[in-house]
Structure formats: C-alpha cells, structure tokens
Amino acid sequence: MTERKLIAVVGATGSQGGGLVRAILDDASGTYAVRALTRSAKSASAQALAAAGAEVVEADLDDEASLRKAFEGAHGAFVVTNYWVTRTPAEEAARTRAEMELQQAENAARAAKDAGVAHVIWSTLEDTRLHFGETDRVPSLDDGRYKVPHFDAKGEADELFTKYGVPSTFLRTTWYYDGLTQGLGPVRDESGKLVFTLPLADQPLAGIAVEDIGRTAFAIFQRGDEFIGRTVSIAGDHLTGVQLAAALTNTLGEEVTYQPYTWDEYRALGFPMAVEIANMFQYYAENADQFTGDRDLAAVRDLNPRLQSFKMWLDLHKDELKAAVQ
After folding, report:
1. Do 111 and 14 fall into the same domain?
2. Quick one: 275 exposed, middle or buried, by C-beta within 10 A (0-12, 13-18, 19+)?
3. Which one of 149, 245, 294, 322 is separated from 63 by 20 to 30 angstroms, measured CA to CA?
C-alpha cells in the first residue's frame, strides 16, 4: 500500500485551517493524511478533529521548536497567522500585531525548512504600501510603518519563505462572505430599514466563502509541484455594494439599501481598528481593477469546482443572516 502524504495544518481549529483539514478528511482517494496543529489538543474543536480522523498535535507559532517537531515527516504544510487573535494588554504592549505575524511567519518558515517540508502554502495578502506609496491619502499605522497592517505584514512575510529557501505557494485570500454574520452585514437604520454600509464606493469587492480557502489549498497540494514558487490569488465572486445589497434583499426577503460610509466616516467611528479597516476598504476600492483582476474566478473554479458564488453562500447561510439582522 502506498504511504499517504501527510499535510500539517497550522490553525487547524480556525477558519482557514479547519477548512483544509475537513477537505483532506473528506477526500475519498485516501492519498493524504492530515496532522492538525493546535495550541490545545484538549479543546472541544481539537477533539472533534481527532474524532473525525485527524492526527492532532500541539504546536504554537511563537514556539519554533514545537513547529519543527510538528512539521517532522510532513510532505506539506499550510501556514496561516491570526492577526485578530484575542490578546492580553501585556501582549499588546510587548509587540504589535504586525510584528507578531512577521515573527510567527519566520518561525514557521525556518521550521519547515529544517523539517524538510516539500511544499508549504503560506496564506497571505497583498502589501498595500505598493499601492498607497508614501502619500498621506490614508493614515499610516504602527509608527508609520504600515497602511493596512494585517495586509502589509503578511505581504512582507512572503520574502521570509523565499529567504529560507522553502518550496512555497503564496495563497492570497480576500474578504470572507462569512463576515456578514459577524458584524459586517446589513444594519437597521432609525426607521428600521436594512442598510448595507461597507465603504466600497462604487467598486467591486472580491469575496470568498472561508471554507473554499481550505478546499483550494488542498487542490494546490494535489497538483504536486505545479504551484511551487507561484502566487495564487483567490475569490469566489466580484460584486459591487449595490449588487451585494440586491443579493441580500433576495435572501432576507426585505429590501437592503446600499448606503456606504465614506472612508473618512468609517475611520471616525472610533471602534478598535476602525482606521485600519477603513484603509483596507479604501485599498479594495482604489485598487479594484488590479485586485479583482488577479483573482480569476474561472482559474479558481478549475482548482476548486465546489467554489461558492455569493448567491450559493447566501442560500446555505440564510438562517444565520436572518438571525444576525434581527
């Protein structure tokens, strides 16, 4: 019997990593096995993965030795960092979130190199500084180092995998449809009518179902060496705010009107990271032609035939959306 190729998955209990673990476990060919990396093997989500057939091991992106051990014997590794992880005040004071991601990416790159991993997929994003340049059209963050830190740090970290000679695919993701059930969906105005307020101006937004990130990553592993050294940018749909609102209207059964904030209005909302999120949406809008153009939906669907359009995702999550807007 041919030995199965082992894929080690960082963030296996999270959104992207969890999707990849499920894709491997659901593969009828049995060609691949999966090692789910988690900070706590005793968590309910980790135990559920073990019950489903995954090998669960503890590893921490801040502990290079634990990563090196977890990558041992793996043919492939999927690496994702979590910029939005809950942190203590002491952790926030010790280093910025961007610094955290860069350090964790470097730990993973070195560990993968030392363990002899044949193919790493690094979940990344564009560096928005290449678009914004040195201008002050958007505020700079992290002592002037970044414009959209959760994009820019990942884009900067791409070079680390190249620096350490890791055979890598750079998987550029995008906005998740799933965010609509997590605070980014329509809200009711003073009259009780639903409005969709994301600051997209009149430009299309590339979106994807988070589950499709894992499925597409698995397809890349299945294609062998074809995508090593390449950047693969993915999405499931490209829709304007008006089109998103129209689709939401059909799903929710009541009118959703697109009334976007301006970028400055969004930055002034005052919640944590409002400035960063506004900068991100300004990048999406100003760079829409390049950003959506890099995400060829036909090419992504060739990799992942189950790729969900926005309508497909809405049909599956209708009840969650209705609960979210009530």
Report:
1. yes
2. buried
3. 149
The neighbouring-strand residues paired with 187 are 195
269 shares a domain with 284: yes
Q: Which residues of the chain have pLDDT under 50?
A: 1
Domain count, the chain: 2
Q: Among residues 129, 47, 34, 41, which one has the least CA distance to residue 76?
A: 34
- Which string of DSSP letters, residue by residue, matches 55-98? EEEE--TT-HHHHHHHHTT-SEEEE---TT----HHHHHHS-HH
In terms of residue numbers, what domain contains 255? 175-207+236-292+309-326
**Is residue 76 assigned to a domain?**
yes
Is residue 157 within 8 Å of residue 221, measured between CB atoms?
Answer: no
C-alpha 87/C-alpha 266 separation (Å) is 24
Q: How far apart are CA 279 and CA 125, in angstroms?
A: 14
Q: What is the pLDDT of residues 68-111, one digit of tens each?
A: 999 999 999 999 999 999 999 999 999 999 999 999 999 999 99
> Does the residue 203 lie in any domain?
yes
**Quick one: 156 and 13 in the same domain?**
yes
- Quick check: 272 and 210 in contact, CB under 8 A? no
- The three-state secondary structure class of 121 is strand
Rounded distance between C-alpha atoms, residue 222 and residue 19, angstroms: 15
Distance CA 200, CA 180 (A): 15
Paired sense of beta strands 187-188 and 194-196, if any:
antiparallel
